Amino acid sequence: MALKVAIVGLPNVGKSTLFNALTQTAAAQAANYPFCTIEPNVGEVAVPEPRLEDLARVAKSKEIIPARITFVDVAGLVRGAAKGEGLGNQFLANIRDCDATALVARCFVDGDVTHVEGRIDPIADLDIIETELMLADLESLERRIPALEKRAKGGDKESVATLRLANLALAALSEGRPARSVSINEDDAKTWRMLQLLTSKPALYVCNVDEDSASTGNALSEVVASRAAKDNAKSVVISAKIESEIAMLAREERGDFLETMDLAEPGLDRLIREAFSLLGLQTYFTAGPKEARAWTIPVGATGPQAAGVIHTDFEKGFIRAETIAFDDYVGYGGEAGAREAGKLRSEGKEYIVRDGDVMNFRFNV
After folding, report:
1. Number of neighbours of residue 320 by Cβ within 10 angstroms
2. Number of helical H runs and strand E runs in the chain
3. SS3 of 98, please?
4. Sign of the CA dihedral 273, 222, 31, 33?
5. Quick one: CA torsion of 309, 3, 284, 57, rounded to 10 degrees?
6. Edge-to-edge strands of the sheet including 4-8?
7. How many angstroms separate the Cα of 76 from the Cα of each of 91, 94, 253, 295?
8. What is the distance of C-alpha 15 from the center of its chain?
9. Alpha helix locations (H) across the chain?
10. What is each CA distance from 103 to 89, 112, 136, 236, 311, in whole angstroms?
11. Alpha-carbon distance 243 to 266, whole Å?
12. pLDDT (tens digit per residue) in 166-199
């Protein structure tokens, strides 16, 4: 699955520094002035998955292939972006192409790093972002609804369904609520996505704190966490500056550095996992002498749907899935041991895949 998360925020909140650390490159220019990111920078990163190493060890795999997620660092937003201020039009188009947004809030005080609004207030920053995205969605809907109404009156069933959802979104936005606050049933999910509303995308609040607050957060990040809880969203504390330093270290040196900073793991690992979870995703595995591999599927996917992630022919010709729980696969020394212990299950088309399942598909093309 191609998964993209937009890193969104006002200028100089640490977006590009965070992006550089995520991709372990210096592709994004992290400079102390607005709009230093002109074109969207795109980086693909591995989803941290320690279980893969255990699988590879047991299966004697030559290669480990993790699941991946793409982050897009887009130009900093300012007031009036919905009307084209700053790099507004480009900014909004870049977000529209992504599956979710990581809203970066500045939760550190540093007189050497200017703030486009001239103050440090992460909630005000988030309000500006949400307001501009909602205004853009309002404009989009108001432009499209007249044509939908015309086609709906002519009896076009697809337009009738789309118009109903557009009006639900319009009502929420008019009340100052993002489109993601609207409850949509599964039957309407595809049509809802086709509206391409910016505020319908899942959002993660990223609290960029100073180095001393990397492990515990601070008063500013606590305020953002409260806001996230109120919005039924998630938040994560991270120090982009520390993460950029970690990214430059050799792997064997990172453990000692994390210990000195009182961190159990890099904040980026938490961020990537939260983004993965935000999109309602989970992982299943395939393992063998050639490779141990993580595959990304939506929570609730069936056996055939999981098989289709590998190849569409696997889904079309699905017969059954030989399935072993991760703990059983490792605990019994691989497929043969799990089979002998009665832990290998033959699952059919209705099986709902569980996170961590180790699977081998039988199919007929």
Report:
1. 18
2. 14, 12
3. coil
4. positive
5. 110
6. 41-46, 68-73, 4-8, 100-107, 203-209, 234-238
7. 8, 11, 33, 33
8. 15
9. 15-23, 51-59, 88-96, 122-153, 157-174, 189-194, 219-230, 240-248, 251-260, 267-278, 303-310, 312-316, 326-331, 335-340
10. 18, 23, 17, 10, 34
11. 7
12. 999 999 999 999 999 999 998 999 999 999 999 9
* 317-342 tens-digit pLDDT: 999 999 999 999 999 999 999 999 99
Encode pLDDT of 7-65 as tens digits.
888 887 888 888 888 877 434 434 444 444 445 688 888 888 889 999 999 999 999 99
Q: How far apart are CA 250 and CA 256, in angstroms?
A: 11
**CA distances for 157 relative to 4, 21, 322, angstroms:** 31, 48, 42
Smallest CA-to-CA distance from 292 within 305, 283, 282 is with: 283
Q: How far apart are CA 187 and CA 101, in angstroms?
A: 24
- Which residue type does 1 have? M
Q: What's the predicted TM-score (pTM) here?
A: 0.80
Other Cβ atoms closer than 10 A to 159: 18
Helix (H) or strand (E) holding 206: strand 203-209
**What would the two tokens of residue 251 be?**
């792997």
Taking only Cα atoms into account, the Rg of the chain, rounded to an integer number of angstroms, comes to 23
**Cα–Cα distance between 351 and 303 in angstroms, integer?**
6
Chain-centroid distance, C-alpha 200: 14
Tokens of 306: 């999981």
Contact at 8 Å (CB) between 75 and 43?
no
- Residues 221 and 234: their CA atoms lie apart, in Å, by 12
- Return the axis-axis angle of helices 267-278 and 15-23, rounded to nearest 10°: 90
Output the DSSP codes for 246-283. HHHS-HHHHHHHHHHTT-SS-HHHHHHHHHHHHTTEEE
